[in-house]
């Protein structure tokens, strides 16, 4: 509609913004200065305790420093009342006594018809309420009483009854002179396909009026009294007044309750909303028999930034909520999301309230899951991720969902949260058996003085007595240093953490600092070097990583001497992980053989250790003089001189036992 020049300016001048806003907020008297038109209050558009919503009455504008909502009196009425621009103009003009200029004939005729339809709907509301008091509604009253609805509650919700007759409402409205096209246009009757009189849409049902944000009756929901009826609940057909996908049951009262700080709760049906309201949860709404639509989501977010979706504890209820996630992901904005309260299995909010009371429901609301957690639960619940392929499938599915989020900041935070949840699911676990390095201490088999026959720990050299590595056995030093090289290299190049994620997860890390650094890499490596270093410094102290880098074997590694070379780092980490993996396999084989020596030595034990010795012989042909290590051929493993000596001593003991006839 085109309004005459100057009309809106005059309307804004005559309407006091503080009076318009004052119907929805409670002013903070300490911050507000009414004489200057400088008013402050908690924002009606998002839940908060502080007064960050500012109204400048002289300029006629409002602004929220929390959610950044802004506008004038017309936009405020549009947002809070969920009405169109012209409807907001009419509301304000009516309050200040200004006549709204006539619209063009077609628009005026449409508006007039909507007004007439709303009046017919009000007449229907009153007629249905009267029918609830008749003898024909005895079963309906008994049902409502059984569901815990007192007469006061029935009056508040304007519950009525449609008798099981074909033209009961039709005849009543016709008797008041209502035109056929208005009864049909309001969806209260349907034309006969057989050429007879139109018949009532609702018959033999308990009636729930559906009102819009302005409080106008726009539709009905009817619950069948006949258990054999195909449709347990039936809504009005869509009309000029009623668009099912743009309407919510109890939206007007819920908006007011949310403005008072109550949570906005989305339930499945009328009875849930009525039960929630009766228990003190007045900010409850329900979609009208269908899955929540995009328009309904936007309505919910205009009322509260984080509506709580209550999920019935059945499969259908949970599937509906999971579909809602896919709808909501592209629409997310900063401070605008959903939370989910999962009801006990087989129960809806009404069932829970009647069984356990408001306290039980409040606990569920307080522990409502953020949407990212429900997304994770949907993708992981009941599934087993015991192979790289299954883990990769999970990663792919989650990436596809996160890509739906348009807001880059929210998309980034979802990625971080999913990364944390994935780390919790796949974080490295303690090895099943105690790790026994090659040449480690084990059960004595006859050495003098109770010492192991295959040798014991060597005394540290004088030059190494001050080293932090002295505390462990010489045989463990090689493994310790390999782990240090891997961890330091990845700290210098955290972009490779994802590449080696599986290898890192499987790395046992007997040293507590190594284990903690490994976990930090897995959890924060993807976030970049700055975030990773902050977490390392916070968790281990700034000196921990520097001390690890200062160890000679680590410091001379080429990719650590020249940090930033991604290709060299990738090759080094891959090689060191492979050697560690192979070393663990050899250690386990020898450890098992050693355990078998608690009984008579047999050919299997001898063969297994001979194979280890053969590997050691291969190592001796490629001695690394500087480090004192041997390369174990194709296995890519190394064995220290001490480990080789221990293995030779063990084989000698077995051969001696066999020569004495003990095999």
From TrEMBL:
<keyword id="KW-0240">DNA-directed RNA polymerase</keyword>
<keyword id="KW-0862">Zinc</keyword>
<keyword id="KW-0863">Zinc-finger</keyword>
<dbReference type="InterPro" id="IPR034151">
    <property type="entry name" value="TOPRIM_DnaG_bac"/>
</dbReference>
<keyword id="KW-0639">Primosome</keyword>
<keyword id="KW-0238">DNA-binding</keyword>
<dbReference type="GO" id="GO:0006269">
    <property type="term" value="P:DNA replication, synthesis of primer"/>
</dbReference>
<dbReference type="InterPro" id="IPR013264">
    <property type="entry name" value="DNAG_N"/>
</dbReference>
<comment type="subunit">
    <text>Monomer. Interacts with DnaB.</text>
</comment>
<dbReference type="InterPro" id="IPR050219">
    <property type="entry name" value="DnaG_primase"/>
</dbReference>
<dbReference type="Pfam" id="PF08275">
    <property type="entry name" value="DNAG_N"/>
</dbReference>
<keyword id="KW-0804">Transcription</keyword>
<feature type="region of interest" description="Disordered">
    <location>
        <begin position="434"/>
        <end position="458"/>
    </location>
</feature>
<feature type="region of interest" description="Disordered">
    <location>
        <begin position="618"/>
        <end position="639"/>
    </location>
</feature>
<keyword id="KW-0460">Magnesium</keyword>
<keyword id="KW-0235">DNA replication</keyword>
<dbReference type="InterPro" id="IPR006295">
    <property type="entry name" value="DNA_primase_DnaG"/>
</dbReference>
<dbReference type="GO" id="GO:0003899">
    <property type="term" value="F:DNA-directed RNA polymerase activity"/>
</dbReference>
<feature type="compositionally biased region" description="Gly residues">
    <location>
        <begin position="439"/>
        <end position="453"/>
    </location>
</feature>
<keyword id="KW-0808">Transferase</keyword>
<dbReference type="Pfam" id="PF13662">
    <property type="entry name" value="Toprim_4"/>
</dbReference>
<dbReference type="GO" id="GO:0003677">
    <property type="term" value="F:DNA binding"/>
</dbReference>
<dbReference type="InterPro" id="IPR030846">
    <property type="entry name" value="DnaG_bac"/>
</dbReference>
<feature type="zinc finger region" description="CHC2-type">
    <location>
        <begin position="43"/>
        <end position="67"/>
    </location>
</feature>
<feature type="domain" description="Toprim">
    <location>
        <begin position="262"/>
        <end position="346"/>
    </location>
</feature>
<dbReference type="GO" id="GO:0008270">
    <property type="term" value="F:zinc ion binding"/>
</dbReference>
<keyword id="KW-0548">Nucleotidyltransferase</keyword>
<dbReference type="InterPro" id="IPR036977">
    <property type="entry name" value="DNA_primase_Znf_CHC2"/>
</dbReference>
<keyword id="KW-0479">Metal-binding</keyword>
<dbReference type="GO" id="GO:0005737">
    <property type="term" value="C:cytoplasm"/>
</dbReference>
<dbReference type="Pfam" id="PF01807">
    <property type="entry name" value="Zn_ribbon_DnaG"/>
</dbReference>
<dbReference type="GO" id="GO:1990077">
    <property type="term" value="C:primosome complex"/>
</dbReference>
<dbReference type="InterPro" id="IPR037068">
    <property type="entry name" value="DNA_primase_core_N_sf"/>
</dbReference>
<dbReference type="GO" id="GO:0000428">
    <property type="term" value="C:DNA-directed RNA polymerase complex"/>
</dbReference>
<comment type="function">
    <text>RNA polymerase that catalyzes the synthesis of short RNA molecules used as primers for DNA polymerase during DNA replication.</text>
</comment>
<dbReference type="InterPro" id="IPR006171">
    <property type="entry name" value="TOPRIM_dom"/>
</dbReference>
<dbReference type="InterPro" id="IPR002694">
    <property type="entry name" value="Znf_CHC2"/>
</dbReference>
<protein>
    <recommendedName>
        <fullName>DNA primase</fullName>
        <ecNumber>2.7.7.101</ecNumber>
    </recommendedName>
</protein>
<comment type="similarity">
    <text>Belongs to the DnaG primase family.</text>
</comment>
